[in-house]
Design goal:
- Two copies of one chain form a homodimer.
- The first copy, chain A, has three domains: about 130 residues, 3-Layer(aba) Sandwich (Rossmann fold), CATH 3.40.50; about 160 residues, 2-Layer Sandwich (Dihydrodipicolinate Reductase, domain 2), CATH 3.30.360.10; about 80 residues, ACT domain (Alpha-Beta Plaits, 2-Layer Sandwich), CATH 3.30.70.
- Helices cover about 35% and strands about 25% of the residues of chain A.
- In chain A, strands 7, 8, 9, 10, 11, 12, 13, 14, 15, 16 and 17 form an eleven-stranded mixed β-sheet that branches. A six-stranded parallel β-sheet of chain A has the order 3-2-1-4-5-6, sandwiched between helices.
- At the A-B interface, helix 2, helix 6, strand 12 and helix 12 of A face helix 2, helix 6, strand 12 and helix 12 of B.
- Strand 12 of chain A pairs antiparallel with strand 12 of chain B.
């Protein structure tokens, strides 16, 4: 048996502690699969006194995580601190600079600095593993980089944030408005006390930018992601969706169009006939469409200690087995920057909901706005009557360019009868 | 760029031809991902004159596939002939013996000779790739071997045969009896003219034995698989299933119980709340339950030229990237033979359907048989009345041992009122 792979773990939060626990519990199993042991030789965290239920005897404790980067007894630094910058960034940079392999679960770090870090890893011939950064328990980075390596990827999309999926599922199944469902998610531990990054779509955007880079061989371009969260989705939209044959999911979608790389995160109407419509609760799902493999969907836990630790250790096992591939599937020098496809040029079908005064002539004004913008209406629903007061009116469109829809919506928003800004949700086509 | 990986393709049927086509079409893309080209330098097939729409200029033609094994210009032999024995077996054996890497899509070959072939590959330090042998377009072998390598696998199961899934879906959605649905599947090209291996569950069993070996680190034991096909599933069962909240799927299920390795292929009642219940038509799905990763499901095309070629070439790409792992995840010497868990010891819930004469006392006789076998009835349905003539009676049981259920069914089968052998379908629990 070869000599052990020696790991330094930075950050002993939920995930870090579980990684240490997993490596201890499955030591023999992993050794039989790798031909060598994977051993935690050093750890670093802020609070040495906290009881994490871990046996840390014989493991070096370091108050300063950065010390791991220079420790000659460490082969791999496992960065589980989090955050796009600060200590996490410094540590990963220093570790790679010192020629150490790095495994991280840090999506923000990768989304902001992925290409530069990949370059640093490459120049030292070491691995930069980040399976745990996207869709935790689903080995999707490996699938894209290796399992589907024979394919030109046509589209990659998914439910990448368990908090949002939990909230949208609770809204639908328990008929809750967004705020109530969010409070519920927080009580159950599915949402953090500051849920901004999740509900505003930022976390999904981090993951999407990473997926897009691996799938399309392009530098990570987080700033190019169009991001909308779920805070504007009403229970009324979920009800209309169901009536129209859709479930609403927060999707991250990336594809290469004639206008360039389209990366977008927003609530989507998903036809109930598509299996991703049935991925509920805190589960994640990623769909890969390849030109030979056709459509593949992987469903699993997107977060949580166990699934994330499983992904972190899978990366460590790859390293222990001496399997190293370029972080984004091709060497950094071969990554091809693509123009950003503007959302104005996005083509698709749309769901729009208006809140208008129920009086004669309103429908005529609205449909005229669509006609003049050359947007073709597929369906129009006005449930109930409420003469003189407001009613919701829902329309779905045929395939159109987003800029054209924007013109119609702007005109309708300015109508005297319109009482709330129109709400738009894109209908994803499969 | 390193020197090209030179491939000899044996068998130019649907899959073989598509592999040649894929490598030609994606040559540059694959080279950018591997750092070297993958080139087909020789092919072999029975009929040289058949027009396959392939550009074979510059590629050696060999009438005798075995010649590929000894050809010094070939690095990898790609076996796409099929069949557990005969030429396919001879070729793979000879190629490995000559120190060539081998990639195959041949599940029958692996199910029957997997362990011996893995040993041959190991002794020469070459790869034996078979991603395409199980669930075509789903990279499940890689996921088990690498993505979930940090996990003790608790259960692996799936819909592994698109023909059966197509037939069961057509029975349910178009209200067809089995024979009609099979004829339809044959007309549409989803079933072969001799569909025996598919509908009798043998194909699923081949794939399950391979999955179990990789998942549990045990020698391939195809002979230990309990196999039932779908020929006995009636439309009436599908209707009752739906009423009880189930869809019927042909599953292959493998897990390690206290009695040993349980490997079984049979129609299953799957609760509609489980996402695998919604994998319809010719799609395949594999669920992996790991002790850290939790439940993961992958859905994709199980067969067809494109998805299978995608998997074959993924294996070639692994070889081109010099990523070689033991075929069944650990070296053959470390595979641990497990006792076969007898189906008699299987514990689970059951659906049973009886065809009995509708007369007083029948129910009492039947329920007494269950009571005496100590099998607890969960539900009992007798729809409609037909005094003096036969009626279907359906029962579902609580958790029980299969041997006990067998005793109850034997006694009921012998009742004077019983007109057809009782039908039993296992209810899979999640």
């Amino acid at each position: 048996m070869s000599k052990p792979l020696r790991v330094g773990v930075a950050g002993l939060g939920t995930v870090g502690a579980e990684v240490v626990r997993l490596l201890a519990r499955q030591g023999d199993l992993i050794a039989s699969r790798c031909g060598r042991r994977i051993e935690v030789v050093a750890v670093s965290a802020r609070d040495r006194l906290r009881d994490r239920g871990l046996a840390l005897a014989g493991i070096d404790w370091r108050d300063d995580a950065l010390g791991l980067a220079g420790d000659p007894r460490i082969d791999v630094v496992c960065e589980l601190i989090g955050g796009a910058d600060g200590v996490a960034h410094d540590l990963v940079g220093a570790a790679l600079g010192a020629g150490k392999e790095v495994v991280t679960a840090n999506k923000a770090l990768l989304a902001h600095h992925g290409t530069a870090l990949a370059e640093a890893a490459e120049s030292k011939g070491v691995a930069l593993g980040f399976e745990a950064a996207v869709a935790g328990g689903i080995p999707i980075i490996k699938a894209l980089r290796e399992g589907f390596a024979a394919n030109r990827i046509e589209r990659v999309f998914g439910i990448l944030n368990g908090t949002c999926n939990f909230i949208l599922t609770a809204m639908r199944d328990n008929r809750r408005e967004f705020r109530k469902a969010l409070a519920e998610a927080q009580k159950l531990g599915y949402a953090e006390s500051d849920p901004t990054f999740d509900i505003e779509g930022v976390d999904t955007a981090h993951k999407l930018a990473i997926l897009a880079s691996v799938a399309f061989g392009t530098p990570v371009d987080f700033a190019g992601v169009h991001v909308e969260g779920i805070t504007q989705v009403g229970l009324i939209d979920i009800d209309f969706a169901r009536e129209l044959g859709f479930h609403i999911k927060l999707l991250g979608v990336a594809r290469v169009t004639e206008h360039g790389l389209e990366q977008r995160v927003h609530p989507c109407m998903v036809p109930i006939a598509h299996p991703i419509a049935h991925v509920d609760g805190s589960f994640n799902a990623v769909v890969v469409e390849g030109d030979f493999a056709d459509r593949n969907m992987a469903v699993g836990r997107g977060a949580g200690a166990g699934p994330t630790a499983s992904a972190v250790v899978a990366d460590l096992i790859d390293i222990a087995r001496r399997q190293r591939l370029p972080a984004f599937n091709v060497p950094v020098a071969d990554l091809k920057a693509l123009p950003r496809a503007s959302m104005d040029r996005h083509r698709g079908a749309y769901y729009v909901r208006f809140t208008v005064v129920d009086r004669p002539g309103v429908m005529a004004d609205m449909t005229a706005a669509f006609r003049d913008a050359q947007v073709s209406i597929e369906a129009l629903i006005q449930r109930g009557r409420n003469p003189g007061d407001t009613v919701p009116v829902v329309m779905t469109t045929h395939d159109t360019e987003e800029a054209a829809l924007g013109r119609a919506l702007a005109r309708i928003a300015a109508l005297k009868s319109t009482r709330e800004p129109p709400r738009m949700i894109r209908i994803e086509q499969f």
